[in-house]
Design brief:
12 helices; disordered C terminus; five-stranded parallel β-sheet; 13% strand; Rossmann fold; two-stranded antiparallel sheet; 9 strands; alpha/beta
Length: 300
């Protein structure tokens, strides 16, 4: 079912997207929404559609487009980001003090409230109002609960997006060699990366096991991800200032380049291993253009 031009125009304007994103809606989002609508049809309880992609790859924008397309089909859709499950700063500070200082910084497995995610999946299949958590990256804290969107359960479909959604842990042998400066200088004994890998092998797999359909937005390489993350940070800063807030804890370009090293190991692992396991793989060009046609042709 094609969307009317005014819907697309409104979406592009609200999301500050270029006119070319219309092609993405027509060739990627619309066919993918059709697949997900079929997945949700006739189920008892919500279908869970995971969307994985590196930082700045456009996961949130794609999920917003999918949500609007699916809602126009009459489905009740909840959108949840793995980023919205980050632990508060105080909890991460305790991890940093007890286990390794790098765990005070949000990012890798071990810095999320996985139990909260599992509870949300259950609540969204029940009845009554469910508040969906939101994390304020500019403040590096969960947003005030009063600002969380509320949805009436049960829902038909959950769009669950995140940079490592669906990922599997690495082998112990692979962890032995540092992958970048941060690991070599700040985690020479491998305590931090081992903790993150063990966390991923644990309750994160319980969370990811609930996913019924997984889409991977595949970056051309890790090297472009830092550029994408910097653009994302600039957008975050602009939004904060436009809303009349200060820039909060936003980062400059050098800080982003350092921050992205927290994600490098697992991002590279995902790019190497997840394409063979995903239901749909959407290839991205360096400018984040989605370089694929109908995702139905890529079913695995």
């Amino acid at each position: 079912m094609a969307e009317p031009a005014d819907w697309v125009d409104d979406f592009l304007r609200e999301q500050s997207l270029p006119p070319g994103y219309r092609h993405t809606i027509e060739t990627v989002a619309e066919p993918l929404a059709q697949r997900l609508a079929a997945l949700a049809a006739g189920r008892r309880g919500p279908a869970i559609a995971g969307v994985c992609g590196a930082q700045g790859s456009g996961k949130s924008t794609l999920c917003e487009a999918l949500a609007r397309l699916l809602r126009r089909r009459g489905l009740k859709v909840a959108v949840l980001s793995l980023d919205d499950l980050y632990l508060p700063r105080a909890a991460r500070a305790r991890l940093g003090a007890d286990i390794h200082p790098l765990l005070a910084t949000r990012g890798p497995p071990g810095t999320h409230d996985v139990a909260q995610g599992l509870k949300l999946f259950g609540d969204l299949s029940g009845s009554g109002e469910v508040a969906l958590p939101r994390f304020d990256k500019a403040q590096d804290e969960p947003a005030p609960r009063a600002s969380w969107p509320v949805i009436q359960a049960p829902v038909d479909l959950i769009l669950f997006e995140g940079w490592c959604v669906g990922a599997l842990p690495e082998s112990t042998q692979t962890l032995a060699t540092p992958i970048n400066r941060l690991e070599a200088e700040e985690d020479p004994a491998g305590v931090w990366r081992t903790y993150a890998n063990d966390a991923l092998a644990g309750r994160y797999q319980d969370l990811f096991a609930r996913i019924d359909h997984l889409t991977l937005l595949r970056a051309p390489s890790f090297e472009v991800v830092a550029d994408w993350r910097w653009l994302q940070e600039q957008k975050l800063r602009t939004r904060r200032l436009t809303e009349g807030n200060d820039a909060g804890r936003t980062m400059d370009q050098a800080q982003v380049a350092a921050f992205i090293q927290l994600y490098e190991r697992l991002t590279r692992h995902i790019l190497a291993t997840l394409p063979a396991r995903a239901d749909v793989v959407i290839d991205l060009q360096a400018d984040r253009t989605m370089a694929t046609g109908d995702p139905r042709a890529m079913n695995r």
